[in-house]
Amino acid sequence: MNKNICFVTATSATVDAFLKGHINQLAKHNNVTVVTSLGETPLALPENVEQINIHISRKISVWSDIKSLICLLKLFLNSDFELVVSVTPKAGMLSMMAAFLCRVPVRIHWFTGQVWVTQSGWMRSLLKWCDKVTALAATNILTDSQSQMEFIIKEGITSEDKLQIIHKGSISGVDLDKFSPDAQQRCVAREEIGVGSNDTLFLFLGRLTQDKGVLDLAVAFQQLAKVENDVFLAFIGPDEDGLQREILSICNDCTDKVYFKGFTDKPQYYFSAADVFVLPSYREGFGTSVIEAAAMSVPCIGSNIYGLSDAIIDKETGILFPCQDTVELQHAMSRLARNPDLRKAMGREARLRVQTEFSSQLVTEKFISYIHSKMGQ
């Protein structure tokens, strides 16, 4: 018998990037509704998936949040949902509260990182309290990594009996057909960036923000470029904090070796060009970009924080370094720049791990099984 299932996110990009595979499979035998802030065109989902536009602000906005909560309450009261799944912090808090008040039987929130980790003072307390409210209103909590689960328990967000991860972690896994080594694509991408076949290209791909550690990366690369002539650095992603000018100022002696490109909907193209992926982030729930790079046989240097410590096996699929330690970051970059054989060995191990543990097909199968278990199927 078909079940009525609802997914709620703050942005349609979250659905597009992480949930489409899960929704496509569930929609084959269930009535699925997606609630998010839709753009001008609907999401590319099966025709039988209902898409409802409810604006949910990612930032704190009291009146907007109240309006969103009222819209969710009306929707849940007038629908017969048996299960609601939420992703992203604000969507989680509002939808779990609304679903609780409307007595939706199964309420699942998926934590993919905690925004309050890098905050301090009253803002940290407020955001942490919001996560506690979300967890209290939910019947079940998912996290996308084991280390994040342990962190949530340690911080008192919720109890261990509510928590679970899907298989080995990750929210959606990796499409191995899309993310696969491609020699021809590599040549084209490296030519665009201006990197020679014998040069070492370090890649950052994601939002250019302080929390992603991009300024630390600039400092480490500037020092590395002083002693290594054939190294290059590419930043791919939207400059949300307006950091490009500051990055170039830090890299004042080697700006000719630094490349910028804004948002891309083809991350695999730039991963194919890279020799090493670098993610010196201050907070991550798991690090999807790490396993996407790994699927393309690209090792990763990442900060040793919860989430990334699950995505990277230190000294096997990449290198972990102390968060915000630019000297150790430089040492890790130098080590891989000088050892192409080590890079290739780590890349092979990284791809093998993704193939066996993080394929999107496998993660979706495990998620569907989890959903069926919660609905008593």
TrEMBL record:
Signal peptide: none
Sections of the chain in a coiled coil: none
Domain Glycosyl transferase family stretches: 190-352
Pfam families reported for this sequence: Glycos_transf_1
Protein name per the record: Glycosyltransferase family 4 protein
Organism: Neptuniibacter pectenicola
